[in-house]
Amino acid sequence: MKVTIVGAGNVGATCADVISYRGIASEVILLDIREGFAEGKAMDISQCATNTGFNTVVSGVTNDYTKTANSDVVVITSGIPRKPGMTREELIGINAGIVKTVSENVLVHSPNTIVVVVSNPMDTMTYLALKATGLPKNRIIGMGGALDSSRFRYYLSKALNKPANDISAMVIGGHGDTTMIPLTRLASYNGIPVSEFLSQEELALVAAATMVGGATLTGLLGTSAWYAPGASVAYLVDSILNDQKKMIACSVLLDGEYGQNDICIGVPCIIGKNGIEEILAIELNDAEKAAFAKSADAVRNMNADLKT
Ligand code: NAI
Questions:
Q1: How many angstroms does the Cα of residue 255 sit away from the middle of ligand 1?
Q2: What's the 77 CA to ligand 1 centre distance in angstroms?
Q3: pLDDT band with cut points at 50, 70 and 90 for residue 306
């Protein structure tokens, strides 16, 4: 199984690293526009093989798409990340041009691939990639919910003082500080609703911390995070390549689901060898429905900026 990652920066290279040491794919191609950069990252990752015990072949190329031919999955992590004080939405101008060109280029050499969009503002970039390529909706997947949900589980684990892996929780909606919706009502610890352990005030604080989780890290690091984003992409790629049919919140084109049309936004999906195998309809209460509609409006407004 072959994975191409376009953009060998912090997120792309971390994703390649996780895919390799977890043996998710047999071959990884890192492609970057910066001369020699992807080659260097690939060499560095490859030199971990003996000490971490993996056999994945990792190669790097400078803007040569012929080397990406016949990829099963292509991940787009090319573009600029945000700096402290910036929103994801402020990246649209530069990243739209990059994502459009990259998504068209990869399909020339991998016409049957599944594309995972990571570049921000992710929901809008996913929509753009879909429109630019004309691919069926199951083959363009936006990665945001996997990351936001893992941050939600992290903050719940802190509040509960329990391991994050014993907690189930999901974030849906847009991948933005004010648009994402941590579903506190449905979060559970070992199957027990977390509301049995935490007050509504405590849950509201957890949700608020989750929503600005990315901004918190950007403030601390001086640029946006990469370990959890890279691992979240690898988790998604694993479910595709190995047909795991995991339920993961992903940004996908909606055709009436959740009362929305013609936008890509985060909803729970079954992810397998065909990409989006199914969009799951979870029953939202009135407050959650209203939050989802508001989030969709914000994403739709952002999409409108693509045309200006
Ligand atoms: P980075 O700056 O470390 O890496 C980006 C790489 O893209 C650079 O190496 C750059 O040379 C390359 N690049 C730029 N234009 C290119 C082109 N036309 N073709 C090939 N490569 C090109 O940035 P980082 O931190 O890796 O973030 C990448 C993107 O992912 C950003 O837009 C960031 O906002 C987004 N992101 C999205 C997340 C999500 O949950 N969806 C989470 C974290 C980051």
A1: 29
A2: 4
A3: confident
